[in-house]
């Protein structure tokens, strides 16, 4: 049996990074559920970020997420039904429909930011602030400058 100290195989690092990500996301969504957002899923956070404060079209949303317009539309339909998004006429072009966040969507994103801060504090309490800061610094050194990519859903989907 291998231990964390003895197993430094290359494939372990991405699995540990993914496990850390999954732990943070699962803890985030458990807390969001307690705070009145039980239907938000990890994909929804990417969608809300991609919609942004100004809104977007389903086609543009698909491009931002790296998925088809149809896949984006299906997710938009779900988030409209849940009250996180709405469709509206584009004031600049009546032929276009915009997808915009509702107050519920904005509230979900605001709460997510607060919960992520609390989760980081929890990690710092467990590992020490210095180690968490060093981990963040080290990850910045080995990842692209534009590390926040909204096209993760499309990338995961192939």
TrEMBL record:
GO terms, biological process: response to stress
Record's keyword annotation contains Secreted: no
Gene3D superfamilies from the UniProt entry: Winged helix-like DNA-binding domain superfamily/Winged helix DNA-binding domain
Keyword Hydrolase: no
Entry-linked InterPro entries: HTH_MarR-typ, MarR/SlyA-like, WH-like_DNA-bd_sf, WH_DNA-bd_sf
Keywords: DNA-binding
Residue ranges annotated for the HTH marR-type domain, each copy included: 1-144
GO molecular-function term, one example from the UniProt record: DNA-binding transcription factor activity
Superkingdom to which the source organism belongs: Bacteria
Protein name, per record: DNA-binding MarR family transcriptional regulator
């Amino acid at each position: 049996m291998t231990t964390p100290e003895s197993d430094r195989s290359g494939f372990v690092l991405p699995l540990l990074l993914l496990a850390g990500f999954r732990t943070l996301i699962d803890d985030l969504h458990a807390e969001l559920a307690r705070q009145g957002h039980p239907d938000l899923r990890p994909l929804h956070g990417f969608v809300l970020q991609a919609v942004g404060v100004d809104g977007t079209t389903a086609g543009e949303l698909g491009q931002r997420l790296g998925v088809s317009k149809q896949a984006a539309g299906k997710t938009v339909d779900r988030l409209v039904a849940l009250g996180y998004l709405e469709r509206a006429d584009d004031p600049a072009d009546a032929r276009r429909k915009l997808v915009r966040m509702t107050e519920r969507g904005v509230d979900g994103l605001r709460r997510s930011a607060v919960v992520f801060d609390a989760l980081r504090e929890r990690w710092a309490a467990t590992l020490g602030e210095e180690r968490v800061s060093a981990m963040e610094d080290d990850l910045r050194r080995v990842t692209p400058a534009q590390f926040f990519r909204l096209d993760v859903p499309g990338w995961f989907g192939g």
